[in-house]
């Protein structure tokens, strides 16, 4: 065996990893709200999703502030940034995010 020769199984594994990374589907996206609830529309990349295609976490839907005096209800408004989780063919709005 030559000193510089590599194990063919390691080369095969490295090639498979390299090629496989091009076919991995991203499952978490940063999207932008186009239209708020109840007619929620969200866009990410070149995809636009409507309320019929989206799920939203119950906690996001029902979130209220900790203040007893406030009757504030969490809203998703046009221009808000949201985290979208893709599971198979379903899209879930996880939460609103802000840039620091």
The CATH first-level class comes to Mainly Beta
Instruction: Compute the separation of the termini in Å.
Output: 56 Å
Taking the sheet with the most strands, its summary is: 6 strands, mixed
Pairing-aware structural class of the strands and helices? alpha+beta
CATH topology: OB fold (Dihydrolipoamide Acetyltransferase, E2P)
Organism: Peptacetobacter hiranonis (strain DSM 13275 / JCM 10541 / KCTC 15199 / TO-931)
Protein name: DUF2577 domain-containing protein
Tell me what the structure shows.
The protein is α+β, with helices and mostly antiparallel strands. It has one domain (27-97): OB fold (Dihydrolipoamide Acetyltransferase, E2P) (Beta Barrel), CATH 2.40.50. The protein has helices spanning 8-20, 58-62; strands at residues 28-35, 41-44, 47-50, 54-56, 81-87, 90-97. A six-stranded mixed beta sheet has the order 3-2-1-5-6-4. The longest helix is centred in the first third of the chain and has 13 residues, at 8-20. It comes from Peptacetobacter hiranonis (strain DSM 13275 / JCM 10541 / KCTC 15199 / TO-931). This is DUF2577 domain-containing protein.
